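Dear colleagues,

As part of the handover before I leave the project, I'm documenting each prediction I ran so the next person doesn't have to rerun anything. This entry is a single chain, and its sequence is reproduced below.
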Amino acid sequence: MHAIQARFNYLPAFALAALADALQCSVAEIHSVSSFYHLFNHSPRAYDIRFSHNIIEIYQGKAALMQQLLDGLQLKQGQVRPDLRVCVDNTSCIGMSDQGISALVNGLPVTHLTPARITQMIELIEQSIPISQWPATFFQIDHRIQHKNRLLNSQIKAGDVLTKLSDKAQMWQTLQQAGIRGCGGAGFPVYQKWRLCQATPAKQRIIVCNADEGEPATFKDRVLLSDYPEWVIEGMTIAAQLIEANQGFIYLRGEYRYLLPMLEAVLAQRRRLGLLGPAAGFDIQIYLGAGAYVCGAETALLNSLEGQRGIPRAVPPYPVNHGYLGWPTVVNNVETLAQVTLAFLIGGQHFAQIGTAASKGTKLFSVSGDCQAGIYELPFGTTVAELLALANATEVQAVQNAGAAGQLLLSPDFHRRFCFDDVASTGSFMVFNRQRDLSAMVANFAQFFAAESCGFCTPCRVGTRLMAKTVEKIQAGQGHARDVDDLTDLCHLLRHHSHCGLGSSAGNHIRDTLTQRPDLYPLKA
C-alpha cells in the first residue's frame, strides 16, 4: 500500500484490486486494512496537506495558518478541490511540536510554518510545482538537544559495543546489573522480558523496535533515530544475541517516513561490515506504519507488522511467548534499546549508579510549549521543578506529563521526582503558562482519543466520542451538573472496561482536570 501511494499519492481502486489478486485475498480484506490507517488516501490528489492538530501548535496559532491556506486555495477542510490538486485537513501530532507549527505535505514534514510560508505554499501549489522542487528550508528539522547526560554525550560507531561483548552468561549479568526498565510507559524490566522470551522453546525468535512514537508532543525517539541510530540498532543486535533471534524489525511510524532512506543506509553499512545479514545470523528490516496511535501498543503493532488492522490482541499469551507470526517476540521502544547499548558500553554496575534505586539510568524528555523546547536528558530522580528551570519555563500554570494519556501536574506537584515510583513518564512534557486556557487542552485531548480509538470495543469506541461531545457541550455553555456526572462515569467505564491501554487511559485528562481544575467545566445556573 505504501508503494502504491508513493506512486499515485492515493490508493486507486484498480491498484488495490491488483494487490488483492497478488495476495490471493478479497478486495474487502484490502480495504479493511487500508481504511484503518489515517495516512492512506482513497481519493486522488496531487498535494495532501495535513496540519498537526497538537495542543502545543494550536496554542501557537495553527488554526489561523490552516485557515489562511484554505482561504488561499479556496477550499473547505477535508475536501479535495474539484481539479483534484489539493486537500487540506488535520491529523494527530506528527512528532514535530518542537519545530513550530508543522504539517505533513505528501507525507513529508514541513516545519516552522508562518503566514509568509503559507503564502509561498499557496503559490507553489497553484503553479503545480512538485514538492521535490519546493525550497529545502521548508523541510528543515532542527534537532534541539538542549541538555545532554550520559547517553547523548557519548558517540559510538557500528560494532563498537558488539566487538567488546563477552560470553552470554556475562552479558546476562550485565543486563541484570543495569536494571533497565522499558521507556515506553509500562516500565517492565528489560532483563525479565528478555529472559521470558529466551526461555520459550522455539525454532525462531524475533526482536522488534517500536519506533511508532505517537504520544502527542513526544519526539525523543525521532531524535535518537536521526542522530543516534547506531545506538538503537546495536541494542537490537545485543538483544538478538541474548534471546537467540535471527530476525529483527523496526516499526517506523508513517509520520517519520523521511527517516527511512537514512536508516536503510545505516543497515546497509552494517551488512557490509558483517554486523547484519547472513554472516551475522541476524538481520533487520524496516516497516512503515501509516498513522494509527494505537499501534504504539505492542500487540497492536505486531498485528500491523503482520499486515493487519492495528487492533490490540487479548493477552495472555504475551508477545514474549507468542508474538510476531506466533514466534516468541521481544518488543522494546527506541529509547530502551539505546539505553541497553549504553549499559553494555559503560558496564551494568556503572549504569546502575545513575538515577535512583528503583529507576536506574537517565530519561529523555520531549519538552515543548511555553519554554525552551527540545530534548533534555536527565537522571531519574530529577524533580519537575528542576526540569522546568532548565527549560527556562516561567509563570507555569500546569504541566501535562506523559502526553494526552498521562497526568496533569500543578505547582504543588513540582517537587515530585521523575521515577517509576513517583512521576513516571513516557517522555512527553508539555508546559503551559498562566496565559493559556486549559479548556482548549481538555477539548483537544478528548478529540484526539475519539479520533484514535481503533473501534474494537464498545466502551472505547462509544465512550471516547461521548466524552468529546460532552466536553464540547460544557464548553459551549450548555453544561449541567449531570454532564459532569456523565464524564465521571465515562472515565470509570473507560478505565475499567476497555480492551486496551488506549481506552483505559483516554479519560485520564478528564479525571485530573475535574479533580484539580473544576473551573474548566462551567455549568449553567
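The radius of gyration is 23 Å. The first helix runs from residue 2 to 8.

All the best with the project,
I.
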